[in-house]
Each structure stands twice: as C-alpha cells, then as structure tokens.
Amino acid sequence: MRESLMNDPVLIVGGGPAGLAAAHALSSVGRPNILVEKMDRLGGAPILSGYAKLVPSGEWAKDAIGGMVSRVINNKLTDVRLNTIVKSFDGEPGHFQAVLNDGSTLKASAAILTTGFTHFDSINKPEWGFGTYPDVVTTTQVEQMISSGKGVLCPSDGRKPKRVAILLCVGSRDRQIGREWCSKICCTVSANIAMEIREELPDCHVYIYYMDIRTFGLLEQKYYWRSQEEFKVKYIKARIAEVTSNGGQLIVKGEDTLVKRPITIPFDMVVHAIGMDPNVDNMTLAAVFGVKLEPNGFIDRQNTYGVIGATNRAGVFVAGSATGPETIDDSIAQGNAAAMSALGALQVNVAAE
Ligand SMILES: Cc1cc2nc3c(=O)[nH]c(=O)nc-3n(C[C@H](O)[C@H](O)[C@H](O)COP(=O)(O)OP(=O)(O)OC[C@H]3O[C@@H](n4cnc5c(N)ncnc54)[C@H](O)[C@@H]3O)c2cc1C
Ligand code: SF4
C-alpha cells in the first residue's frame, strides 16, 4: 500500500502561476504530478490575457511566467494535459480517481485546485461606457496593446490618445453589482500602466480616478508616489456617475469628493481597471471536487493558520486566486504551500497505513 501511495501522482487543476508553482514544487521533491489545464496553453491569466510588464518585478509576463511554463513542461515528473477538464473526482485521500472530459481516468493521491479567477466583464457596468464606446477599454486591453508592441492607440481610429482616464475599482468594491471585495492589485497595475503610457506618449495627460488608493506595502513609493512625482500622473478622488460622448471625445462625469463639486472632463480614451471575479467554473468545480465556496463564490479555505490550502474535503487543496483576489507572488507562494500540505497529508496517510 505504501508503494502505491508513493507512486500515485498529485493532480493539479489549473496551469496558471499557482498551478505551475505547485507542479514545480512537487517535481522538485520527486513527486509525480499531473497538471490539467482547460485551455490550449499553460500560464494562466498573465499569458492567456497577454499582460505586459508585471508589477512589482517589471519583468515582461511572457518571460517571467513563460519561464515558469518552460520549467514545468521540461520536467518529466509533470504530465501536462491541455484542453482538459475533470468531470468527476471520487475516492479518499491517497486513493482518488478522476474522470476527464475525453473519458479517460487517472489515479491521484491528492488534488490541488489552482483554477484562478475570471476577469470582471465591464459590460456589467454599462453606465461607464464599455461596450457602447470603442475607446472605453479595460486594463487587460491596454496590457495587450503594450505587450503586442503596437503601443497604446484609440481602437476607434488608431490615433494616439492625448488624454487618458483610468477608472479604478471597476467590478470591485461595488455593492450595487454584488462585488464588495477589493481586487488588491488593480491600483498598482493602473499606476504602472499610467507610467507606461506617459513613457510611450510623453504628451499624453493621464488621470486616475480613485475612491482610495491601495498600493499596499512597499508598492506605495514605487507606484503611487513615483507615478505622480516622476511621471506627472494626476489623481482625482471622485465618485464617477457616467461616461458619455460628445461625438468627438469621451466625457467622464462625476463628483470630486475632496472639494465636493461636480466634474466633467473630456478624454480620448477611458480605461476600466477591472477586478477579479470568482472563476465562472466554480459552481461546477465545487460539485465535482466536493469543496465549499465562500459567500462571494471563491473556493473556501478551511483555515488560515493550520494546514495551508486545505479545503473542507480531505486530500483536496486550493491555492492562488481561486481563493479570492491574489497577486502573482502570493499565488505562487500559495501554490508552493499547497504542494507542501498535500505532501504532508500523504505522509500522514502513509504512517497510518
Ligand atoms: C488586468 C490585471 C493585471 C494584473 N497584473 C498583475 C501584475 O502585474 N502582477 C501581479 O502580481 N498580479 C497581477 N494580476 C493578478 C494576476 O492575474 C493573478 O494574481 C494571477 O493570475 C493568479 O494566478 P492563478 O494561478 O491563481 O490563477 P490564473 O492566472 O487565473 O490561472 C488559472 C488557470 O486555471 C485554468 N482553469 C480555470 N478553470 C479551470 C478548470 N475548470 N479546469 C482546468 N483548468 C482551469 C485557467 O485556464 C488558468 O490557466 C493582474 C490582474 C489583472 C486583472
Ligand atoms: S486594488 Fe485599488 S482599484 Fe483594485 S479594487 Fe482595490 S482599491 Fe479598487
């Protein structure tokens, strides 16, 4: 029995930063693992959504996360299955059996869910112009413009914008649309994008509309202050009412909440700093893996200080933004920690048998 436990791989579901970290951690201690990814590529949101330079490292996503992907693909202990989802998952810790979408089955000693998040769809905030005006875009679209090498251009006619507004907290901290959480990373990502626009288009004025600025920890100096002092990005504390158009330019209307006056300012481009929603697959994942979701719809962690990444189901762990908004660094750390927890649980099982 001990022999088969040692040989059964750990199943990792989701090939983003958290899943890649878990796979690498398990391989590095000699534990075979199977990495199941529903898309046709590994890398998660930073690769699938074409992020540009990451915060806080400043490295291009395709290099930083691409390096993690190569490390996993080149390791014989990881069996990568692309275009794959798990249809059922039965059994006990040490002896699980999964059925995949192609009908094949596999044995697993434990599972780690690293299925990440879904980007907020700005269509759900119609009064802020996305889907109505082509020059209202999202932070992911701007990341793609930068990473593609084409540069930041207005989608309507390809002109270089002279005035850009970045609206923070789109799809986060918004009770009206049932999203009370802070997405953690979008203030910093927006300050970074603002600096990149100013660097590429020095004549372009960039304004950031905010409720609060949450460039947490050491990021305050590197992003919040630097964007203002070195890159002359302007911050407006405001409550935004709507984004409209005068035919030529976009008009951002709202209230400056510091001076308590209405403000109406024209822009060429408006950028929604979109937040992190629970993965749209979470209801299915919860049913298949028998794990609970927390009230917002992310996968629930059983405890914070005990077995890191434990879910309510023994032998099934969770890591990264599947648990709630997380940065890449924290997702990687949690992927490593969940791998350690899975190994620890298997050792307990071995000892018991
Ligand atoms: C616009 C924007 C910019 C950002 N920029 C940064 C940044 O610069 N720095 C930073 O630290 N963070 C940044 N983030 C946050 C970053 O995207 C997350 O921290 C990171 O992607 C989380 O990694 P993850 O592996 O947990 O999840 P994900 O990256 O979401 O990866 C999950 C993987 O699981 C797969 N998957 C999902 N469901 C299933 C399923 N049912 N079966 C199989 N596979 C499945 C997905 O296809 C995906 O490959 C940004 C976020 C946004 C919205
Ligand atoms: S990180 Fe900033 S932009 Fe993102 S939800 Fe939190 S406060 Fe809003």
List the domain count as a whole number.
2
CATH architecture of the largest domain: 3-Layer(bba) Sandwich
Order of helices and strands: HEHEHHEEEEEEEHEHEHEEEEEHEH
Count every helix, treating DSSP H or I runs of 4 or more residues as helices. Answer: 9
Could you tell me the strand content as a percent range?
25-35%
Uncertain stretches of 5 or more adjacent residues: none
Helicity level: 25-40%
Describe this structure in words.
With 353 residues, this protein is of the alpha/beta class. The chain has two domains: 2-116 and 279-352, FAD/NAD(P)-binding domain (3-Layer(bba) Sandwich), CATH 3.50.50.60; 122-275, FAD/NAD(P)-binding domain, CATH 3.50.50.60. The chain has nine helices and 17 strands. A seven-stranded mixed beta sheet has the order 9-15-10-11-12-13-14. A five-stranded parallel beta sheet has the order 3-2-1-7-17, with helices on one face. A three-stranded antiparallel beta sheet has the order 4-5-6, with helices on one face. Helix 2 crosses helix 9, helix 5 crosses helix 6 and helix 6 runs parallel beside helix 7 (219-229). The mean pLDDT is 96. The structure holds flavin-adenine dinucleotide and iron/sulfur cluster (SF4).
